[in-house]
Specification:
With 157 residues, this protein is mainly α. The chain has two domains: 2-43 and 144-156, no CATH class; 45-138, no CATH class. Helices cover 77% and strands 0% of the residues. It contains nine helices and no strands. The protein has helices at residues 2-12, 17-27, 32-44, 47-61, 68-89, 93-102, 110-119, 124-147, 152-156. The longest helix has 24 residues, at 124-147. It is globular and about 45 Å long.
Length: 157
Amino acid sequence: MKKYILTFLISMVPIIELRGGIPVGVGMGVPWQTAVVICMIGNILPVPFIFFFARKVLEWGADKPVIGKFFSWCLEKGRHGGEKLMSKAGKGMFWALLLFVGIPLPGTGAWTGTLAASLLDLDFKKSIAAIALGVVLAAVIITVLTLLGFGAYTAVK
């Protein structure tokens, strides 16, 4: 049971998300099909909270002594990602957000994509749909790479 919970929790961590959760879960012996489902749920679960509350919390904490630098960095990362996405996407923002979340590159993923969508005041329903489909795309890519032996877990094993 521990390995299932750990797999779930890893997929909820910003930056790591299911990109780390699937390979670690599979590496610990979780069947890949189960790891994918657990990680997709874990990766999507924080998205509505990020969309509605992260921006407010980050803006509140940006000028605080201990947390200010990190919170400012998160805001800047979200703004930068959002502006970059917006400039390239134009009217194809749905597809741009889906690909931003779905293609597993450093600095992309559900957390960053949701924060960007929130900072850009994008439509909640459309953003959540694009992010959810992006998570599915990322899960497919990471699962294939993991099953081919290119996972993070096998690299440190």
